[in-house]
Amino acid sequence: MVAPRSTHATANARSGQIGVAVWSRLEALAEGWRSLSDLTDRETWNDPAVQSCAGLIDNAQSIAVLTGAGVSAESGIPTFRDALTGLWARFDPTQLATPEAFAADPALVTRWYDERRVACARCRANAGHLALAELERRSKAAGCRFRLITQNVDRLHQLAGSSDVVELHGSLWDWRCTHCGEQREERAVPFAEYPPRCHCGGPRRPGVVWFGEPLPSEAIAAAWAAAEDCDLFLSIGTSGQVEPAASLARVAAQTGARLVEINPQPTTQSDVVDLVMRGPSGALLPLVLAALDAC
Ligand SMILES: [Zn+2]
């Protein structure tokens, strides 16, 4: 990860696809974390797309990673839409995830978010989370800048060991008093009352970004700086449709960065990235790490 940018040799592997032969192996890996020593099957991690991705990482001096709901889904975290089931099926997001909804019925809104906390508390970081934490450690040890930007609010990246995570949409675990503004992480589930109360008596709300609210300015600035500064941008588990995700990838591309997409389905940016890897990040990222070992 110390080679100059001019040595980007493998970046032309546009639209590389994981071969059919490795799919059974990938599906097995997707079940959970396997140690890298298990990945001795060269047929598996010698796949051209995996090799290309490893080559891009090996040559990068500044890496920015953007993760989206797909990475959380691999841990069993329900997407926002999927969470609107059962007793909540009769609600739409604007009734639960807006400042107006909280003002109208803080007990209802915080109960829904508490159920999401309970669901998240049952989930664990997956192999993709762990691989990104490992990639951060390796990158920094090699003198390569590494920034992780996420649209996810579950904090599984931090649980996996990632540091300095930029949370574009806030966190489900941080709760803020709407009277005195005190914010703190609340890990114990469930709450005893709705809405949960601050020591000052004020109702507390989740530290997530609601519809109609601006994204945290510090997070936006950090994400923008990472995109402008990087020479490799990895877009993982995100459709690329939600802003500022689409803009971040575009900014990175405009400054000359290579773009890699890791996602099971095609996205709006699939046609413009340098390398596409189709599959779950929990299967592909460990393979990339294994391939990096051979670089
Ligand atoms: Zn308070």
UniProtKB/TrEMBL annotation:
The gene is cobB. Belongs to the sirtuin family. Class III subfamily. Keywords: Cytoplasm, Metal-binding, NAD, Transferase, Zinc. SUPFAM superfamilies: DHS-like NAD/FAD-binding domain (SSF52467). It comes from Thioflavicoccus mobilis 8321. It is found in: Cytoplasm. InterPro entries: DHS-like_NAD/FAD-binding_dom, NAD-dep_sirtuin_deacylases, Sirtuin, Sirtuin_cat_small_dom_sf, Sirtuin_class_III, Ssirtuin_cat_dom. NAD-dependent lysine deacetylase and desuccinylase that specifically removes acetyl and succinyl groups on target proteins. Modulates the activities of several proteins which are inactive in their acylated form. Binds 1 zinc ion per subunit. This is NAD-dependent protein deacylase. It catalyses: N(6)-acetyl-L-lysyl-[protein] + NAD(+) + H2O = 2''-O-acetyl-ADP-D-ribose + nicotinamide + L-lysyl-[protein]; N(6)-succinyl-L-lysyl-[protein] + NAD(+) + H2O = 2''-O-succinyl-ADP-D-ribose + nicotinamide + L-lysyl-[protein].
